[in-house]
Write a structure and sequence with these properties.
With 268 residues, this protein is α/β, with parallel strands linked by helices. It has a single domain (2-264), classed as 3-Layer(aba) Sandwich (Rossmann fold). It is built from 6 helices and 13 strands. The strands form 2 sheets. An 11-stranded mixed beta sheet has the order 1-2-3-5-4-8-9-10-13-12-11, sandwiched between helices. The radius of gyration is 17 Å and the shape is globular. The chain starts with a helix and ends with a helix. Mean pLDDT is 86; it is low at 3-25.
């Protein structure tokens, strides 16, 4: 059913090419894929498990921050190393405006719903349908994670594609699409939100997390998975885990495994 629904949102697009990237520092199962989306070339670095693991595979989308690249992100956050059975997609952003980059000199994602005519939502729609129609995906185990601007875009995706994801892990973001957080309409899925206590937006992120707790009518029950850096809130509308570290505006490499452990416990 999910395939049929989202096909309605896809623009005219075509698959362009697929090529390997440097195997000297990448896993042999990783490649660089290119597509044409409304005449614009888009790309992603993709990990595909060995064939023996390709049965009802989980699918994970991981979005880099503003000014970042998919290549740097996959090196810093090798999600695939912690879930070898999952297909992991690291999309590459294109030049985008941000509150700190009004001339769009750096790569990233739309900051709010409707930016660039939802260019990046359309890019996601294509990739989503491409992978579901190309590989044996378990559509009850599709996940989304992102850092900074990628975390903001994760919250946008949750609002515009509420039936797609089993869980999401936005990190170090308080922008929420630069919209009023109190107007958000999030799906009833588990969320793992990461914050750095020393970052400039920590107080805003705390307000965001408290709003989500209120909307979910969630109850604090202690640590999640015995991790002392977490606050675990239980809810019938989807649990919330707030993971806070003592650094600044960072999704730390060593925290990647914690996020994947969270995903592994959840199916739609």
């Amino acid at each position: 059913m999910k395939k049929l629904i989202l096909l309605l949102f896809i623009p005219i697009i075509s698959f362009a090419q697929n090529q390997n990237i440097d195997d000297s520092y990448f896993d042999k199962n990783i490649s660089l894929k290119f597509w044409k989306v409304n005449g614009v070339e888009r790309s992603a670095i993709v990990y595909v498990p060995e064939k023996k693991f390709l049965k009802n595979a989980p699918l994970i989308f991981v979005w880099h921050g503003h000014g970042g690249t998919a290549e740097r992100f996959i090196k810093r956050f090798p999600v695939y190393k912690f879930w070898k059975e999952a297909i992991v997609v690291f999309p590459q952003g294109v030049n985008s405006k941000s509150p700190w980059d009004i001339n769009a000199e750096k790569t990233g994602w739309q900051f709010k719903i409707g930016d660039y005519e939802n260019r990046d939502i359309k890019f996601f729609d294509f990739m989503y349908n491409y992978f579901l129609n190309t590989f044996p995906i378990d559509d009850n185990r599709i996940y989304c994670a992102g850092s900074s601007n990628g975390g903001t875009f994760t919250y946008i995706l949750l609002q515009l594609r509420p039936k797609v994801f089993a869980a999401a892990a936005p990190a170090i973001t308080a922008n929420v699409g630069l919209e009023n957080m109190y107007e958000m309409n999030l799906p009833t899925i588990p969320i793992f939100h990461t914050s750095g206590k020393k970052e400039y937006s920590f107080s805003k992120q705390k307000k965001l997390v408290n709003y989500i707790i209120k909307e979910k009518k969630a109850k604090y029950i202690g640590y999640w998975n015995d991790n002392i850096l977490t606050e675990y809130y239980k809810s019938r509308k989807g649990d919330l885990v707030w993971f806070t570290h003592n650094d600044g505006h960072r999704w730390r490499t060593r925290d990647t495994e914690v996020i994947i452990d969270f995903f592994k416990k959840i199916k739609n």
